[in-house]
Structures are given as structure tokens and as C-alpha cells.
Design goal:
The protein has 3 helices and 15 strands. The protein is mainly β.
């Protein structure tokens, strides 16, 4: 059901540069009704119930019995084991989802929403893997992923194991599996013009920058 979340980035390229633009026009995100019931797609966009009140205790969970002295004594209901509800063999559909009215889409979007996988792929096109920033330590705000930082990894063991691989392949793989909010790449509604890779002794960070642009790679000409 990934198509329920709309992409918000578009790539605008000229002869020399790559730029990304952000737009919330016609953007939607998936309503919770489309992922709370992953085991049953027939419930997507629906309001439903999996339980009903116990017909013995009327949902109270206890039943009153009369003792030999004529007093009432409350005992746990054996029919529902004190829960007051009974599971249904099949969920009962009550109607369309009250939140999205059955459309499975929410139209109240915000930059705090997480980026789609397709938008993450576009984001990779403005990452400058060719000129990494080498540093011993990180700035204070870079230590906390999400503060002026798109994503990062401080797993020293993983870094050592993967250091032999191409760093761009490793970072790309992690980024495509990450939950990145749109807000970290935006400033006054504008997408960062380039993303710098910062490498430290035991990890890395992707740092957004609005001061440079990502140049398109030059096409290699065949020798004649």
C-alpha cells in the first residue's frame, strides 16, 4: 500500500546542476486505517470491531449470585473470564473509517511527515560522495541525529565491518531504510542544495547545506 503516501519532491536539472523542489500541493499520507490492519486488507478504509460485549455479564466482567444468606456476591464472569468482552470469529465492519471517510488518505500533511522511499532516492542524487568532510569529532548539534542532520550512524563495530565497502553504497543503503522527516532538508520551504557527507573516526553524518549546489557529473566522451 506504499502508493497511499504521495511523493513531494521533484528533480529540476539544467545543464550543470541538480536541484530538488518541495511541494505539498495534492500531497497525502496514509490514514492509520491502512496500516493498523495489515493482516486483513479488506479492513482498509473501514471502521470495524473485533469484540462484542459478553451477553452474560453485559460487559461488566462480573456476575452477581445470591448466597444462602440471601446476600449478593460478585464473581468473575466465567463466560468472558472477567474481561467483559468476547472475540468475534470475523471482524464486523461498522462503516467507512471516521477519520478518512474510507479514502485511506489524509490531506493534512506537514514537513514533519516521513519521506517516501521514492523521495529518498531523489535525495541521494544531491549527496556529494566525492568530497567528504573528514573530522575527528562532530559538532554538538551533529551529535544528535535529527538536529541539522539528515541521518547518521555511530555504530563503531558496524563501521569497521563495512569500512572496506564503498562508503556511498553503505550510506545509500542505510538512508533508503531510514525514517527521515521532510523538515530536516527544508529551510524556508526550500530543499537543501547539496548534502555533505561528514566522516569521523567511528561513523558518519549527512549534513544538509544551502550554500552549494550538486553539479551534474560530466559525460565521458568515447575516444574516436
Amino acid at each position: 500500500m506504499k502508493n497511499l503516501t504521495t511523493n513531494r519532491l521533484t528533480s529540476v536539472e539544467d545543464k550543470h546542476f541538480i536541484r530538488l523542489q518541495y511541494s505539498e500541493e495534492n500531497a497525502t499520507i496514509a490514514c492509520s486505517c491502512s496500516h493498523n490492519s495489515k493482516n486483513d486488507r479488506g479492513l482498509f478504509g473501514k471502521q470495524y470491531k473485533h469484540f462484542e460485549n459478553c451477553d452474560v455479564c453485559q460487559g461488566y466482567g462480573k456476575v452477581a449470585i445470591e448466597t444462602s444468606s440471601g446476600l449478593k456476591k460478585w464473581l468473575s464472569c466465567k463466560n468472558c473470564k472477567g474481561t467483559g468482552i468476547l472475540p468475534l470469529d470475523e471482524p464486523v465492519i461498522l462503516g467507512p473509517c471516521k477519520v478518512c471517510n474510507g479514502t485511506m488518505k489524509l490531506y493534512t500533511v506537514s514537513p514533519k511527515d516521513f519521506m517516501t522511499s521514492d523521495d529518498l532516492k531523489l535525495l541521494i542524487t544531491i549527496v556529494d560522495f566525492r568530497r567528504p568532510i573528514i573530522a575527528k569529532t562532530l559538532h554538538f548539534d551533529e551529535c544528535f541525529v535529527g538536529v541539522n542532520t539528515i541521518i547518521g550512524n555511530d555504530d563503531q563495530g558496524a563501521w569497521k565491518r563495512l569500512k572496506a565497502l564503498k562508503r556511498n553504497e553503505m550510506i545509500t543503503d542505510v538512508l533508503l531504510q531510514a525514517m527521515v522527516p521532510y523538515k530536516v532538508i527544508l529551510r524556508d520551504g526550500q530543499v537543501c542544495s547539496i548534502i555533505k557527507v561528514k566522516l569521523t573516526d567511528n561513523g558518519w553524518r549527512l549534513i544538509p547545506s544551502w550554500d552549494e549546489v550538486k553539479k551534474k557529473p560530466k559525460m565521458k566522451r568515447d575516444n574516436v
